[in-house]
C-alpha cells in the first residue's frame, strides 16, 4: 500500500457526538444555576464549529505507507508533512473509546519511542488492524511459541480494593461533591446534612464514619476503574516476535511491544497487593516514551496472584526469574532504613510540638497521637524494606529487589546493561556500603542495587556484565576474571 489515503469520514460523526456530550455535561449545571436558556445557541455553535474544523482537518489530511516510510500530510493555508522511517517504528497501538466503537473506527498511534509519533484518528477498525500488521511485518520470526500467555480471571478484581487508588478516589469524590456544592453556595449546608445523618453521635465518631463512607465509595470506584481498564485483558505472543496486550471495557486498547526490544520484566508488588499475595508484571523495553509514559502502557499483566505473575514473567523472559536466590544486604542497610523512616515520622511530630508550645496545648496532644501511630508504622516499614533488599543473577539476567510500600523486583538482561554507576555517600562509606546502578536504554533507564556491601557489590557488578568495569583499577582481580 503506497498510495495516498484519507482518514475515515466517520470522524465527523464522532466529533459531533463528543462535542454534544461536552456541551450538555458542562452546560446543564450552569443552565440550572442561572435559569437561562442562552446556552442552547452557544452549544449549537460549539458543535457546529467543531464539526466544521474537523471537516477541514479530514478533507486536507492524507497519509501513506511505503516500503520505507510512513507519512502524513496536512495542506490547508499551511503545508506540513511528517514522516517516520519504518525501521525506527517501535510501538503501534490502537485505542477506541465508546463513541469510536459505536461508529466502527479506532485511533492508531505509531511511535518511535522518542518524541516522534504519528496519530491517525480515526481509521476504520479493520483498516487500522491491517496497517498495524503491515507496520510490524518487518520483524523477524521469534523462536518462542506463539499463542496466549495470560487472560483476565474475574476473580482478580478482588485485588482492586487493596490498592492505594481506593482511598484517593474516595477522598476525591467527597472533594468533588463539596466543590459542586460550593458553586451553588451550599457547601456548609452539605457538611451539616452529612453530619446530621449519624444522629446524636459525637463529632469525632461522625467524622470517623464519614471517613469510612469515603473509603467505601473509593472501593467501589477502584473496582469500577479496574474493570474499565482491564476487562477483556489478554496477553498474546504473536507471529513475528511481538507481545500484544488487549484490554478495556468501554475504551478498548491494544498495545504492541517488540520482543527484540525487551530487556527484561519487572514484578511490582504494592503493599496492599503484596499482603494479599499478588503482583503485576511490567515490561522493561527500549523504544517506550519516558516523558508521558503511563504505568498501564508498559503493564503486561495487571495485579494477579503472584504465582500467575511469576509464570507470565518466566514466559516473557524465557526462563524462571521470580525465584532467583538473592544475596542479602548487610545489617548496616537496615540501620539506614530505620533512621530514614524515623526521621520522616518524627519530622511532623517536631513541627506540631513547636507549634503547640507556641500556640495551643491541643497541638501537643495531636503530636503525641501522631507519634504513637507513625513511629511503629515507620519501624515496621523500614524493617520490611530491609528484608526485601537483595540482588542476584540467573542465566542471562541480573535481578535486583527493593522497596516496601512499592516493592519492585527488576529482572534485567545482562546484554541490556550499558554501564554501572557506583555511589557512596559519607555515611555509606563509613559502613562499607554502596549503591550500584545498572544503566540501560530500556524502562526507567536505571535500576539500582541499594546499600549493598561495597566489596561484594563491586565483584557482582563486574561479573554480571563482564568487561564493563574491567578498565577501572579498583575492581578486584577475581571480579575481572569472573
Tell me what you see in this structure:
By secondary structure, the protein is α+β, with helices and mostly antiparallel strands. It folds into four domains: 11-136, PH-domain like; 140-323, no CATH class; 325-329 and 389-482; 338-378. 45% of the residues lie in helices and 27% in strands. The strands form four sheets. The protein has a seven-stranded antiparallel β-sheet with strand order 6-5-4-10-9-8-7, with helices on both faces. A six-stranded antiparallel β-sheet has the order 13-12-11-16-15-14. A three-stranded antiparallel β-sheet has the order 1-2-3. A hairpin with a 5-residue loop joins strand 18 (433-440) and strand 19. Helix 5 (165-183) packs across helix 6 and helix 11 packs antiparallel against helix 12 (361-388). It is flat and about 70 Å long. Residues 477-482 have low confidence and may be disordered. InterPro entries: UCP026631, YdbS-like_PH. This is PH domain-containing protein. Residues 58-134, 393-456 form the YdbS-like PH domain.
